[in-house]
Amino acid sequence: MPERNLAEWLTLLEARHPAEIDLGLARVAAVWSSIKQQRLEQNCAISLPTVITVAGTNGKGSCLASMQAIMLAHGYRVGLFTSPHFLHYNERIAVQGQSVDDPAIVRAFDEIEVARGDISLTYFEFGALAALLVFVDAGLDLMLLEVGLGGRLDAINIIDADVAVVTSIALDHQAWLGDTRELIAVEKLGIARPSKPLVIAEADGPEGFAQMIAATGAEAFVIGQDFTLSSEINGFSLSLGLKTLAAESQCFRGLPSSGLLPTNKAAALQALSCAGFTLDGAKVISALDGLTLSGRQQQLSIDGRAVILDVAHNPAAAKALAVALKPISGRYLAVASVLNDKDWLGIVEPLSEIFADWRIAEISASERATKAQTLHEVLYNAGLSSRLFESVEEAFQSALKAAAKDDVIVVFGSFHTVSAVLNMQRESDGCIQ
Question: Are the beta carbons of 69 and 264 closer than 8 angstroms?
Fold first, then answer.
């Protein structure tokens, strides 16, 4: 087998499999079984630590980041797998809060290549298996896994999680998951296991949601029922009441209400409790206070202008972004683009009254990009001011030039859109609060 560096591996994986998204567990499960057999023959049988798997239309990253921060504050060894990445592939696989290095990923890719034989794997499947191998070799206490798409047929679901989390259920990826919230809920709930804890942070489930949850056979912990959030007297912090596996209650007071969405932080705490970890209130508050996540209402200053980056790429996320964009003395300027399976009109509608001007470009980093002219036509038909650009970078540069001191530029619509600006931002200084 030829020696390849990480860049060469990624180029190969991008081109090798005929479909970017190819849901199903048979292929990836067969390769994982082969890997385990190889390890067994080498007298190093695979043993997994505690595993928490997180699915959901929105909020997965925030929930996972919260769990990672809390566990690190308690001194545990933690591995975190997420996708996609912004700047470097290594961001997808973190141990102790740090992206792993190229050699660790390459070693895992080499091992997968030997084990797969003639089985073809997608880019994501290869990466998911690599993360598992890195984590197995890292001596972890906890493995945190983000579902890539859906849940039931996602590569991550070859692992039987000790605790499953579903953060939210909304319309997205309908071509693969179904065109109703009911169908999507079934896919998300597919990560649950009978008699194992299942944490639900969706407060407004689709019709028949309770019956769907019951059908999994899991022990459910549902927000608003089994764990509850409430504002404290000063309005700047929260109380969270958890239900433990022993049906006792545990309360955390003084949790920060700012930063990541409280429901995602609550789900994180409930999941860790269900996994059997004893949590100290002071360490939890310290870990969550000021915790932010790249591309989630991330605030920056670039060339002296205020910028907000948000990966909102479906109507539910756009509504959350609209709520977060409070009135300001200046204007909000949009820089946006989406992939072609997204409901662009549904994204635009909750934001239509907020932006004074829209700058639109086609994502160049993906073959699934929506044509810029299509994006523009939706805005034009909605009576919104829109300008077309050759690239996201050009659209953002135009916004920087047009923005006055009190204006705020909001970049959203896709990880690809945010990544383009983050690449530009690396040469700038500072962060705004």
Answer: no
Strands 249-256 vs 355-361: parallel, antiparallel or unpaired: unpaired
pTM above 0.90, yes or no: yes
Helix 102-116 with 26-41: angle, nearest 10 deg: 100
**In terms of DSSP H, where are the helices of 244-371?**
262-274, 281-288, 315-324, 344-348
pLDDT in tens, 164-215: 999 999 988 878 889 899 999 999 999 999 999 999 999 999 999 999 999 9
> Considering the domain 6-288, what is its CATH architecture?
3-Layer(aba) Sandwich (3.40)
Can you give the length of the chain in residues?
Answer: 433
What is the DSSP-derived secondary structure letter of residue 191? G
Closest by CA position to 188, among listed 148, 225, 140: 148
79, 154, 199, 303, 352 from 177: Cα distances, Å: 28, 11, 21, 41, 28
Residue whose token pair is 């997608």: 122
C-alpha Rg value of the chain to the nearest Å: 22
Q: What is the CATH number of domain 298-425?
A: 3.90.190.20
Reply yes or no: is the peptide bond before residue 2 cis, omega within 30 of 0: no
